[in-house]
Specification:
Residues 19-478 form the Aldehyde dehydrogenase domain. The chain has helices spanning 47-66, 69-85, 87-98, 102-122, 161-173, 186-199, 213-222, 235-245, 270-282, 302-314, 334-349, 400-408, 423-432, 465-468, and strands at residues 13-15, 18-20, 27-31, 38-43, 129-131, 139-146, 150-153, 177-180, 206-208, 228-232, 251-255, 260-264, 292-298, 353-356, 371-374, 391-397, 412-413, 415-419, 437-440, 455-456, 459-460, 473-480. The chain is an alpha/beta fold and 484 residues long. It has two domains: 6-256 and 458-477, Aldehyde Dehydrogenase, Chain A, domain 1 (3-Layer(aba) Sandwich), CATH 3.40.605.10; 260-447, Aldehyde Dehydrogenase, Chain A, domain 2. The strands form six sheets. The protein has a seven-stranded mixed beta sheet with strand order 14-15-16-13-12-18-19, with helices on both faces.
C-alpha cells in the first residue's frame, strides 16, 4: 500500500483532539483480506477509554451547539474538500483493509464526501414552526435542538460512507460524536478523523475508539450522557443494542440486515435487468445490505434471463482490488466465505442447479467465484438468510401477485428492486412491496439526497436526505403566555 500522504495511516485512536493508545498498551492487527498481509496495528480500547471519549464529547457539546449553522457548515465544507483532495489515498487505504476494487473504493470516497457536503447545507435548514395558538393571549413556538452527545457504530463493508452518513448530520445538527468503527476496517475511520482535525473540527467534537466491541458498545449504550445511538450492522446485534439502550431511553437509528428481492417481470427489458442485477448483486462481492439477495424471474422469461445473466457474470474478473480490471475482490474473512459455502451447498443438496461458480476461487484465501443458482425454492436456506457474498439465487414465479407475495415473505424490509416496462404495474408493485427502498428499473438506489432505511427487522430511522438530520434533533414546544 503506497500513500502520497503517509500521515493518513493512523495507528492510534482519536479522543478529545489527541491521538491515544489503549490504557493497557494492547493493540490488534489490521490485515489485507486479499493477501493476509498485516497493514497496521490499532489500539484495543475498552470501556474506560470510551468513557473518556464520551466525557470529551460532553464537554465539547455546549460550544459546538452554540456555533451557528453557517459556522458549522464552513468546518464541514473543509472536511468535504479534504476528502476529495485525498480521494486516491483514502481509496488505496480502503481497498487494502476491506478488499473492494479500487474503482469502487474511489466511488465510495466520493459518496462519503457527498454526505458531508449535503448535511453541511441541511444544517442551515433546521426550521421550527409558529403554531396558531389555542388561546388569544398565548403564542406557540416549535423549535428543533441538537439531541446531544451521539454514538455511532459502523460496519466494515462501507468503512467511509457509513461513517459520514452518521457523523455528517450529527455535526451539522450541533451534536458531538463518539465513533466505534468495525474491527476489520478501522484505518479508514482514523484517516477521516485526521482529515476532520485538519478541517478544524474542535477537540472533543469527533472521537474515534477502536477495540473490544462488547466493552465499547456496552459503554456507549449504558452511559446516560449518550442521548442517541446510530448503528449499521446485523439485525442480531441491533436487537442486543436496543436492549442495552433501553434503561437510558436513547434515541435509536438502526440500519440492519436485508433480504432484497430483485423481480424481473416478463415485460421487462431483459438486458437492462441483467445489468441492474450485476450492479446490485456483485458490487462489493455481494457484501452489501441492499444487494439483490433473491432474484425472482417470471416463468416466461426465466431461461432467457438466466442465460443472459450467465454471460454477464462470466465477464466479471476476480482478484486483488488494486489490480487493473478487477471487478470483484475477496470476501472480508474466512467466516464470510464459510457462510457462503454453507448456503450454496444447502441449495445444491435441495435441488438447485449451479449455472456458474459455486465454489471458492482458485486464487484461494477468501475469494469466491461469482455464482448463479437456478431452480431455487423457498425451502432452501438461501431464500431466508442474507448471503453477503457473490451468489445470485434465481427463483421462478407465475403472476404479479405471486412475485409480491414472495418478495414480502421475509422478516426484512430494507431494499427491493423490480424491472417492468408497464407503468401501471410499476405503481402497483412499488406500493405493494414492504420495503423502505424500492428501485424501479435500476439496480443502484443509494444517494445522499434520498432517505435510506428499512421496515420490519431491517431497522429504525432514516439516513441521508432532508430526513436524515431529524434523527439528531429534539423537538421542543415553547408556550408563551400573557401576550394580551
Amino acid at each position: 500500500m503506497k500513500l502520497s500522504d503517509s500521515t493518513l495511516l493512523r495507528q492510534l485512536c482519536y479522543i478529545n483532539g489527541q491521538w491515544a493508545a489503549a490504557d493497557s498498551g494492547r493493540s490488534f492487527a489490521v490485515t489485507n483480506p486479499a493477501s493476509g498481509e498485516q497493514l497496521a496495528t490499532v489500539p484495543e480500547m475498552g470501556a474506560d477509554e470510551t468513557r473518556r471519549a464520551i466525557e470529551a464529547a460532553r464537554v465539547a457539546q455546549p460550544a459546538w451547539r452554540a456555533h451557528t449553522a453557517g459556522e458549522r457548515a464552513k468546518v464541514l465544507r473543509r472536511w468535504f474538500e479534504l476528502l476529495l483532495a485525498n480521494q486516491e489515498d483514502l481509496a488505496q487505504l480502503m481497498t487494502a483493509e476491506q478488499g473492494k476494487p479500487l474503482a469502487e473504493a474511489r466511488g465510495e470516497i466520493a459518496y462519503a464526501a457527498s454526505f458531508i457536503e449535503w448535511f453541511a447545507e441541511e444544517g442551515k435548514r433546521i426550521y421550527g414552526d409558529i403554531v396558531p395558538p389555542h388561546h388569544a393571549d398565548k403564542r406557540v413556538l416549535v423549535t428543533k435542538e441538537p439531541i446531544g452527545v451521539c454514538a455511532a457504530i459502523t460496519p466494515w463493508n462501507f468503512p467511509a460512507a457509513m461513517i459520514t452518513r452518521k457523523v455528517g448530520p450529527a455535526l451539522a445538527a450541533g451534536c458531538c460524536v463518539v465513533l466505534k468503527p468495525a474491527e476489520a476496517t478501522p484505518l479508514s475511520a482514523l484517516a477521516l478523523a485526521e482529515l476532520a482535525e485538519r478541517a478544524g473540527v474542535p477537540a472533543g467534537v469527533f472521537n474515534v475508539v477502536t477495540g473490544d466491541a462488547p466493552a465499547i458498545g456496552g459503554e456507549l449504550c449504558a452511559n446516560p450522557t449518550v442521548r442517541k445511538l446510530s448503528f449499521t450492522g446485523s439485525t442480531e446485534v441491533g436487537r442486543i443494542l436496543m436492549q442495552q439502550c433501553a434503561p437510558t431511553i436513547k434515541k435509536l437509528s438502526l440500519e440492519l440486515g436485508g433480504n432484497a428481492p430483485f423481480i424481473v417481470f416478463d415485460d421487462a427489458d431483459l438486458d437492462a435487468a441483467v445489468q441492474g442485477a450485476i450492479l446490485s448483486k456483485y458490487r462489493n462481492a455481494g457484501q452489501t445490505c441492499v444487494c439483490a439477495n433473491r432474484l425472482l424471474v417470471q416463468e416466461g422469461v426465466y431461461d432467457t434471463f438466466v442465460e443472459k445473466l450467465g454471460v454477464a457474470v462470466a465477464g466479471l474478473r476476480v482478484g486483488n482490488g488494486v489490480d487493473d480490471g478487477v471487478t470483484q475482490g475477496p470476501l472480508i474473512d474466512a467466516a464470510a466465505i464459510a457462510k457462503v459455502e454453507e448456503l450454496v451447498e444447502d441449495a445444491r443438496s435441495k435441488g438447485a442447479r449451479v449455472v456458474c461458480g459455486g465454489k471458492p476461487h482458485s486464487l484461494g484465501r477468501t475469494y469466491y467465484e461469482p455464482t448463479i443458482l437456478a431452480n431455487v425454492t423457498p425451502a432452501m436456506r438461501i431464500a431466508r438468510e442474507e448471503v453477503f457474498g457473490p451468489v445470485a439465487p434465481v427463483f421462478a414465479f407465475k403472476t404479479e401477485a405471486d412475485a409480491v407475495a414472495m418478495a414480502n415473505d421475509t422478516e426484512y424490509g430494507l431494499a427491493s428492486y423490480f424491472y417492468t416496462e408497464n407503468l401501471a404495474r410499476s405503481m402497483r408493485v412499488s406500493s405493494a412491496l414492504e420495503y423502505g427502498i424500492v428501485g424501479v428499473n435500476t439496480g443502484l438506489i443509494s444517494t445522499e439526497v434520498a432517505p435510506f432505511g428499512g421496515m420490519k427487522s431491517s431497522g429504525l430511522g432514516r439516513e441521508g436526505s432532508k430526513y436524515g438530520i431529524e434523527d439528531y434533533l429534539e423537538i421542543k414546544h415553547v408556550c408563551i403566555g400573557g401576550i394580551n
